Amino acid sequence: MNSHFAHKLKRSVFIVSTLLVGTVALYAQSDKSQPLSWQMVEAHGLHNFKLNTSAEATLATSPWDYVSGLIANAVLQTWQQYPEQSKYYDEVRGYADFSTSLDGNSITKIKKGERVNALGESNIDDLAAGKIYFELYRHEVAIGNYANAERYRNAATLIRNTLTRNHSRIPDGIEGAGGFYHKAKYPCQMWLDGLYMGPAVYAQWQHYFGLSEGADANMSAWSDIANQFIILHNHTYDAEKQLNYHGWAAVPTSDDAFWARKEGPFKGCSPEFWGRGMGWYFGALVDILEYMPKEHKDYKTLVANLNAVAAGLARWQDRKSGLWYQLLQYNDKVKGDGKGDVVDGETYNVGTTANYLESSASCMYTYAFYKAVRLGLIPESYLAVADKAFKGIQKYFLFYDENGDLGIKNVCASAGLGPNDDKSRTGTVNYYLCGKDTKITQNEGKAIGTFILAALEHEKRNK
After folding, report:
1. Banded pLDDT at 328 (limits 50, 70, 90)
2. Are strands 237-238 and 189-191 parallel, antiparallel or unpaired?
3. Alpha-carbon distance 38 to 455, whole Å?
4. Helix (H, G, I), strand (E, B) or coil at 345
C-alpha cells in the first residue's frame, strides 16, 4: 500500500469514527502528519480567510484582489508540487473564471451588485493576481483544452499590457523617470510592495510569451522590468542599516507625499523599514530572477541587489526566535509613544503597542531565502537562516483551533503611505504599530499565502 493511499485511509477511518461519537471535528489529530502546506490550504486556502478585515467564505468566489490572488497562487503552487490534490487546481481555476470573461479580454469584480472592471486606473495592486494565469495556461495546453488556454493567455496579456501601455510612470526630467506609479492616487511614488504586484507578473509574461514579439523587444522589456527594481533600490537602500525604506516619492514636496523626507540623505523616502514591504521586495527579486535571461545586462546587478537584501535581513533576524519584527531595525522595547503623530494640527496613531514579531514578513523572507538558495542566487549558508526561521514560524505563529484547523497569527492587517486625504498614514513608528489600518490580526490572506509558499519550499528540501 503506498503511503498516500494509507494516509487517506487513515484519515477516512478517523472521520467515520469521530462522527459515530458525535464530534463535529473535520480533521483528525493524525492529519498533523500532512505537509504543513496542505494543512494551511485545507484550513484557510480554499475557504475561511480574511482580505484585510473582510471575511471570505471560499476562494472560488472571492473578488479579484492581490491578497486573494496571493492565496490562489500559493494554492496553485501546492497543486504543482502535489498534483494528486486536483481539487486545488479546480479551486484556483474557479477563482480565475469567477472574474475572467470567456474570451479573457476583461477581468471584473462585483460592486454594488454589478460587474465592473477589476483593474483600476494605474493601480499596481490590481495586477498581482494575474500570476495564476500562466500555470493555468500551461496546464490547459497540456490537457488539450486549447480554448481555455487561450482565455488565460489573453487575460495574462491584458494584465501585462495594462501595466506597460496604460499605467502612469514617473515622467522624463524627474529622478526615477520610467518608474511605475504605485497607484494613480500616489503620483510619482514607488513603494517596495509594487515590485511584487506589477513587475513580477510582467516578468512571467516575458518568460512565457515575450519572444512572440521578437528577441529585441523581449530584451527591451526585461530592461524595463529591471529598471523598476534598480530605481527603487538606488533610492531606498540604506547601506548602513542594510535595509530598504518602504516607499519613495520622486516629488517629495507633493501634498500626497507629506510623509516623505524633504531633504538630506534618502530624500523622498519614508521614515521606517517595514517588515512586509521588505518581504514583497525580497520575494519579487527572487521571483523575477527565476525567469530573467542571464545574459541580460542588468542580471548581475539584480543578483547583487538580492544578495545585499539577503545579508541585511540575515543581520536583523531575531536571534532567539529566528523571526523578524514589524519594524525591522527595532526589537519589542520600541513602542508607540502614546502621543501619536500631529499632521496639519490633527493627531493620529495614538497608542503604546510594542513592536512585535510579524508573520507575513517572516514567512515571505523564509520563502525567498529557501528559493534563492535553490536557484543558486545566494550562498547555501543562508539555509541556516531559513531553517531557523521556519522553526520559529511553527513555534511562535502557527496554532490549531478548536476544530483542529491550522491557523496563523501576528499578522499586520495592512499598511500604506498617505495619500493627502488620509493623513494618518504617516510611515512613522506610531503608524506601523498603532495605526487604524495596521491592526494585528490572524488568518489574514497575506500571512496564509506567504506561509504556504514558505512551507512548499521547506518541503522541497525535506521530501
Report:
1. very high
2. unpaired
3. 9
4. coil
